[in-house]
């Protein structure tokens, strides 16, 4: 049982006319390795396999991919969490263009993030020390600022699949709320105005795939609900 | 090479981590045409993994705190080979840099009065070591690096910095006068090779922990900037000084923050004894990292290690209670469950000293200007070349860095380099253009790999290099082992020069990047090995069985490794801060 | 800002609100009709048309029809912008839907007040 059957999505635009799945047999020696370890073992055999990785501890967000049908980070996903019947199928994050193998073009994802103006805006003069913030006010940022931009959520969201150019997606909306919720930010009205149209925020249909896959345990659906409440109380 | 595309910027910053982004922000804000070139999307840089915090005397936990106390701790922690003018700059400018981060939006944790939360870290004292433990590390829970890196990236977006994401710098381009006038870079997505021209080239490429088999560092920490500078013929300072962090998770190598001990956690041996009480009666578990790491190895060597093989110790946190752990150290709880299969709320975490930080690097002044030496050993500025962050050796960390000082180093010296370059650019800089042969020199190693048709594979050679460094240049070192290590590295240099790149495709070829990284790992490893062999004393992180004592008569000096003839010379340490009295070397106890 | 000129409320917020309010109206109307049917097991034409000859029932029904029209338009507009990527096809679909809704609405008014 220690020989794991791994099936990997392969596509090199220079040589392949279409993507295909390549099979590998990996001897895990019975260890419960992380999926990233498996990828490294495959790359030692076949150096042409392309995937992103950096911190290997789940904080940099490089190695988001689809493992046996579920999005997650390869570096913190143990085989015991995903492998069924000794089989592991690895595909790139769905919904974004594939550059090569498991590497997707994250351009649209980042563009939606940038559209949210993800930086503190405060036009009052800064004090000589830090701006004060009570622990209660700061607590409101918990569950928001920890996002690592791995795109597991947005690429598991059907609304984002259909309208990645118009629907901000769960990751971007989580960031939007991170700044709306910050007692130090005073661009609330402009931020809300950016989200009022039928697509940017309202294309969320509460499917909650984002919540199910987030490797950091964050809840974008809840943040989206909070923004909707803010829009509503603003307008009525 | 005549078809190579040129990109021209006022300043090119190689590396998108904390120091690179801080330098870029300074330049972008003043409207200079600035680009950050990073081999990963900037928020994937290793700064993101920093946990515990950023140490700085902002006088929040203690309203009477003083940056001079912080400076004293830093100089003492560095075992007196930190440059005191640089440490003075770091600690006195620090509060400004930290408040700026807060104004940019960094979500620091807070005290009840609304000020930034500060926790105790190792090596911190009040009143120049006489007032007991200080709490000086500003924290955003245990995700300070993540919060800091994202904040800096976000503010660069706000200021329209140009990003060359997933581009890899191959080598520096020097003109006929020896000035650095840009670099050759590879666009990973397309495989295109581009000549990036710039009046200021900033190496903010971070550390190189991947020269060791066991490290807390990200897989991308391959010392690319160090390798480039060495190949360009520039010297490296204090490369023998590598910090082993006491608490890497046993087996996995992932970091567990010193903040755990700052919040009240402590280390125990197999008898459950809090052994640091014996090695550092006052600071106990919050002694300098070098001291704690050595004590842990001593416990293991004397048969008091934990586990089947008795080769590690345990970090006990459960007595802090679930509430404190979930509030102050939520990321640690998560990491321990994932990588040690242990819930720190209930059980101790198995830990072992793990390669963590490179105190050495490219010698610079406080403005980030790279320094080389002439034939007579006089310092000379390298025109056009700057360094900041872990890649630089200013030197503020000396022979051992204090916890939380790394993030401060990034923002203070990233900012300082930005300010200096901005001013220099405004005053006007003109360098001679690089000639075709200058450019060809900078592309030669890429050409070597591209033309390789056989030879050993990159992963095997890398593993051999890492094991060599692990075995001969770890926490404790000795002459014969190191001699052998140096010999082995020389042999590896031959073999890596003949190694094979199997995949020659253009689009997102990570095998090519890993091959180019291997060249850099080798350069860093060799500089480390030769410098370590040369320093015949024990100081800070450099501990030798055969020279167990500090030798201030002969070695109160920086080491300087010269790549041309692979020799090591000594460089004076600065003992003349501008506004405080010199901290004279004393016996270092905690 | 994404521009939208064919959606109902010109804003995602008003569309969202219309969708929710109309859903409440439709739920109430459906509950009422089901309850009415349950309480009149031997319902005949006279009783049924008697119900609809009362003004309050006609207003309630009209409210339900309008809610249905609005609900359908918001919902189908969303479906069309999700799945129909070709502008011509999407426009044609939207035209057919809006025509159908208009016809059913006018017809409904005629049924309610015509007889």
Summarize the structure.
Chain A is α+β, with helices and mostly antiparallel strands and 236 residues long. Chain A is built from nine helices and seven strands, in the order ββαββαβββααααααα.
How would you portray this structure in words?
- The complex is a heterotrimer of chains A (236), B (590) and C (115).
- Chain A has 236 residues and is α+β, with helices and mostly antiparallel strands.
- Chain A has nine helices and seven strands; from the N terminus they run ββαββαβββααααααα.
- In chain A, the strands form two sheets. In chain A, strands 2-1-5-3-4 form a five-stranded mixed β-sheet, with helices on one face. In chain A, strands 6-7 form a two-stranded antiparallel sheet.
- In chain A, a hairpin with a 2-residue loop joins strand 3 (64-67) and strand 4.
- Chain B is α/β, with parallel strands linked by helices.
- The model of chain B has no long low-confidence stretch (mean pLDDT 96).
- With 115 residues, chain C is mostly helical.
- The model of chain C has no long low-confidence stretch (mean pLDDT 91).
**Uncertain regions spanning at least 5 consecutive residues of chain A:** none
Order of helices and strands of chain A: EEHEEHEEEHHHHHHH
The interface involving the most residues is between:
A-B, 56 and 62 residues
Assign the structural class of chain C, choosing from mainly alpha, mainly beta, alpha/beta, alpha+beta, or little secondary structure: mainly alpha
By secondary-structure content and strand pairing, the structural class of chain A works out as: alpha+beta
The coarse silhouette of chain C is: elongated
Strand content of chain A: 5-15%
Mean pLDDT of chain A: 96
| Biggest sheet record of chain A | 5 strands, mixed
Cross-sheet strand order for the largest sheet of chain A: 2-1-5-3-4
Rounded mean pLDDT of chain C is 91
- Termini separation of chain A comes to 62 Å
Oligomer: heterotrimer
Total helix count of chain C?
Answer: 4
Low-confidence stretches of chain C: none
Helix content of chain A: 25-40%
Give the SSE order of chain C as H and E letters.
HHHH
β-strand percent of chain C reads: under 5%
The largest β sheet of chain C comes out as: none
The gyration radius over C-alpha positions of chain A equals: 20 Å
